[in-house]
Design a protein that fits this description.
Layout: E1 5-9, E2 30-31, E3 34-35, H1 36-46, E4 51-56, H2 61-67, H3 71-79, H4 83-94, E5 97-102, H5 109-114, H6 117-120, E6 125-128, E7 132-135, H7 140-151, E8 154-160, E9 170-173, E10 184-185, E11 188-191, E12 202-210, H8 213-219, H9 231-235, E13 241-245, E14 249-252, H10 256-269, H11 273-287
Parallel strand pairs: 1-4, 1-6, 4-5, 8-13
Antiparallel strand pairs: 2-3, 6-12, 7-14, 8-12, 9-11, 10-13
Bound molecules: 1-O-phosphono-alpha-D-glucopyranose (G1P).
1-O-phosphono-alpha-D-glucopyranose binds next to strand 12 and helix 9.
């Protein structure tokens, strides 16, 4: 099997980040100089995928504008001789073939994914949540695609989280995980379990490669936790699902501490020496 398409759901409200998300999508929250969703699109592109469907909704037009060509801005930058900035702006519009579909009502992640059915057709696809940045030496989606192609299976990225956080996630039920295995089979999943009923603390991180059977399974799935159609409830019905344990950094941008952490840690690793030196000096100053 070959994974050539990616789907990025970006339709949810950013309620935890109000009021900043009142008039702008949470996926456009900047981390340093780029909006969150640009990191997500770039992760798919690095995995060799340049056909991307973004699932948007009301109030999300800024996302389309961001990935579109910007004639006036480009002309102005060119006229002013700001060619490095011009390159950066042009690169965004050339990143990938980006398509959009709007989710009409917010009925959960499972419902959002169903909007991808026509575009994806009968092919496996990568799914990347638009409000989550994952930084890893080998980009997360690239590892998932490799495991999915090797085992001809759906594959999810999983991460050990503190037990008290388990009720915020979909959680995997697995045999003991071999630390040397690139991927491992998962028997079952449960969406947002109470801590004392969770089969493990291996949480779904927001990166998936799914086989197209998921669409039929979603159709046959009832609404679940929170009265929403839960993707996890359909994933557990797939014939085989494998997990890949994440060893990179994951930032959930819908939540303020995680967003701040992303900015600080990514500034410290930024390839612009002035930025990391300034942030490092600021942090050192605060320690004293
Ligand atoms: C969604 C998924 C959940 C996953 C989480 C990762 O939940 O339903 O399985 O663990 O994303 O961020 P949400 O955060 O949308 O409530």
């Amino acid at each position: 099997m070959e994974v050539t398409k990616a789907v990025i759901p970006a339709a949810g409200f950013g309620t935890r980040f109000l009021p900043v998300t009142k008039a702008q999508p949470k996926e456009m929250m900047p981390v340093l100089d780029k909006p969150t969703i640009q990191y997500v699109v770039e992760e798919a592109v690095v995995a060799g995928i340049d056909d991307i469907l973004i699932i948007t909704g009301r109030g999300k037009q800024a996302i389309e504008r961001h990935f579109d060509k910007s004639y006036e801005l480009e002309e102005e930058l060119e006229a002013d001789g700001k060619l490095d900035r011009l390159d950066r702006v042009q690169d965004i519009a050339d990143l990938a073939d980006i398509h959009y579909v709007r989710q009409k009502e917010r009925e959960g992640l499972g419902d959002a994914v169903q909007y991808a059915r026509k575009h994806v057709g009968d092919e496996p696809f990568a799914l990347l949540l638009g409000d989550t940045i994952i930084e890893n030496e080998t980009p997360c989606t690239e590892s998932l695609v490799a495991a999915a192609e090797e085992h001809d299976s759906s594959v999810l990225s999983l991460e050990r989280v503190p037990w008290e956080d388990v009720p915020s996630y979909g959680v995997a039920d697995t045999e003991e995980v071999d630390p040397n295995a690139n991927s491992f089979p998962v028997n079952d999943f449960v969406e947002k379990p109470p801590r004392d009923e969770a089969p493990s603390n291996l949480a779904i991180t927001g990166r998936y490669v799914l086989k197209p059977e998921i669409f039929e399974l979603l159709e046959a799935t009832e609404k679940g936790v929170g009265g929403e159609l839960q993707l996890t409830d359909a994933i557990r019905k797939l014939d085989t699902v494998r997990g890949v344990e994440l060893d990179g950094d994951r930032y959930d941008i819908g939540n303020i501490p995680s967003w701040l952490e992303a900015n600080v840690e990514m500034a410290l690793k930024h390839d612009d020496g002035d930025i990391n030196a300034a942030v490092e000096a600021f942090l050192e100053g605060r320690d004293e």
